[in-house]
Specification:
Elements (H helix, E strand, L loop, with lengths): L5 H8 L4 E2 L5 E2 L8 E2 H23 L8 H20 L7 H17 L7 H8 L13 H34 L7 H38 L3 H38 L3
Antiparallel strand pairs: 1-2, 1-3
Length: 262
């Protein structure tokens, strides 16, 4: 802990490296245009890892005896494709690749939570970087960014499939008819806003809580860290996979609803 109190240690690990103009990098943001550099960096690196793994498998794919990489990627593709077939009732060439990308990318985000909490921050400290937060999904900006992307796709496909007139009628006249138009508008707005909010907060809350528990375990003596950290890490592996799965399935369901033309 390097002389830090417990509260300082926890706060340090949960603080993002931010840049709030071209020349100021630190922990305290100023104004709206604040970039979380660590979140942007690790999100990009993890995205490139995902692309690299599947690109390598695609380049080396064979109809004969598949390699381990090909088997791994085929399992993920078939798993995602089955979820789309079960939950999506429209026709779109985007949904399956989008679902696969979301599941793998969010899982990699969450998997960073299983790495030792002091490893990368200490390396960053040696390089003169004061703060480093390596789990993108513990940053509300990252989870909201992904959920807002899904939200914009929902609106886009609602307009594309139903047309402006059909989408307007759905907002204004359902579920109570034209006589209760104000109530319909309020309910529809709340329903649509709840989708990205629930997606973002569910992922953020679960992974943030898991990271906080790992940090608290790191405050204990070394001989207790393994006793508590190992079972929690095994259990947390289930949580991070489940959260990636939930984010993917809800995205498929929401986009399926946007494709339904009543």
């Amino acid at each position: 802990m390097s002389g830090e109190t417990a509260s300082e240690y926890i706060g340090h690990h949960l603080t993002s490296l931010t840049q709030y103009n071209l020349f100021k990098i630190g922990a305290k943001p100023e104004g709206f245009w604040t970039f979380h550099l660590d979140t942007l960096f690790f999100s990009t690196v993890l995205g490139l890892i995902f692309l690299g793994v599947f690109y390598r498998a695609a380049r080396r794919a064979t109809s004969g005896v598949p390699s381990g990489w090909q088997n791994f990627c085929e399992i993920l593709v078939e798993f995602t494709d089955q979820q789309v077939k079960d939950s999506f009732h429209g026709r779109s060439e985007l949904i399956a690749p989008l679902a696969l990308t979301i599941f793998c990318w969010v899982f990699l985000f969450n998997f960073m939570d299983l790495l030792p909490v002091d490893l990368f921050p200490k390396i960053a400290g040696l390089l003169g970087i004061p703060y480093l937060r390596i789990v993108p999904s513990t940053d509300l900006n990252a989870t909201f960014g992904m959920s807002m992307s899904v939200f914009f796709l929902i609106i886009f496909y609602s307009l594309k499939i139903k047309g402006l007139g059909g989408f307007t009628k759905e907002i204004a006249f359902q579920p109570f008819g034209w006589k209760l138009l104000p109530a319909n508008l309020i309910l529809k707005v709340v329903e649509e806003i709840a989708k990205p909010v629930s997606l973002a907060l569910r992922l953020f809350g679960n992974i943030y809580a898991g990271e906080l528990i790992f940090i608290l375990i790191a405050l204990l003596p070394w001989y207790l860290q393994w006793i508590l950290g190992l079972p929690w890490g095994i259990f947390h592996l289930l949580i991070i996979t489940l959260q990636a799965f939930i984010f993917m399935v809800l995205t498929i369901v929401y986009l399926s609803m946007a494709h339904e033309d009543h």
